[in-house]
Amino acid sequence: MSSQEVVDTPLVRPEQIWAAIADVLDPELDTPLVRLGFVDRIEISGTEVGIFLKLPTFWCAPNFAYLMAADLAERARTVPGVSSVQVQLLDHCAGEAISAAVNNGLSFAAAFPDEVTTDSDLQELRHTFLKKGFLRRQDLLLRRLLQAGLSGEVLRTRTLEDLSWDEATERACLCLPGATLQLAALGKSARAYVERGKALGLLRAGGPLFVDEQGEPIPAGDLQSFLRRLRSVRLSLLFNTAMCSALFRTRYQHASAETAHNEEGENPL
């Protein structure tokens, strides 16, 4: 490498930042911001990083907007060589206040004392939506297993260790009495389901593979009722995602937001 190439090589590369923020979620939609197209651009000057965030409407809830901006900043700061991160929330009713709070390390409660009294309120809100995302993932997995011909009782009695996956082949494997069921195109979804469940403390070693939002096993004979609840959660997330994506595309005609969910809601993240 020549001396000129060394001088021209940026200390932090944009692709490093894009990779670091790739799975930062819109908590209400349970979908990555990058996939939705909400991250407008990244600007880098030496070791200083700027991230520009846009949302579907001028009035998107400030608490959710703060969570997204704060999460982007936190992830970008983990990239080696980054000395500072500034997130700018654009075209938003509280954009300047939220950007200033995140960039100066203020909590949401400190920046918006009239909105919440403690930051535990905001974390409880985040936890609630993470659980909804967990239930949506479970709905996908259960529906695929039922389509494969498994009974409710067989599914209800599976343990966490019965499920495995191979992301290289995109296959999920479920151990059954005397056999192993392989499911194509489900590896990433299986991993995402287990990782979210473990992170929330809902799935535990030796415990049931399918649980409710409190981590309790599904009672015998209640699977159909449970599935109806999961369907309600899935449809709610799909509706909100479709609406927000449409609003975003209308607001920013050049936006490259992708359709985050197909009709079955099979979003592995």
Short description:
The protein has 269 residues and is an alpha+beta fold. It is built from ten helices and eight strands.
Characterize the structure shown.
By secondary structure, this protein is an alpha+beta fold. It contains ten helices and eight strands. The protein has a three-stranded mixed sheet. The protein has a three-stranded antiparallel sheet with strand order 6-7-8, covered by helices on one side. Strands 1-2 form a two-stranded antiparallel sheet. Strand 7 and strand 8 form a beta hairpin. The protein is elongated. The two termini are 39 Å apart. About 4% of the residues have low confidence.
Largest sheet at a glance? 3 strands, mixed
Give unreliable regions as ranges.
Answer: 257-266
End-to-end CA span? 39 Å
Strand order of the largest sheet: 3-4-5
Structural class comes to alpha+beta
What percent strand?
5-15%
SSE order, as H and E? HHEEHEEHEHHHHEEEHH
Overall morphology: elongated
Arithmetic mean pLDDT: 90
Computed Rg: 21 Å
Number of discrete helical segments: 10
Instruction: Give the number of DSSP strands.
Output: 8
Percent of residues in helices comes to 40-55%
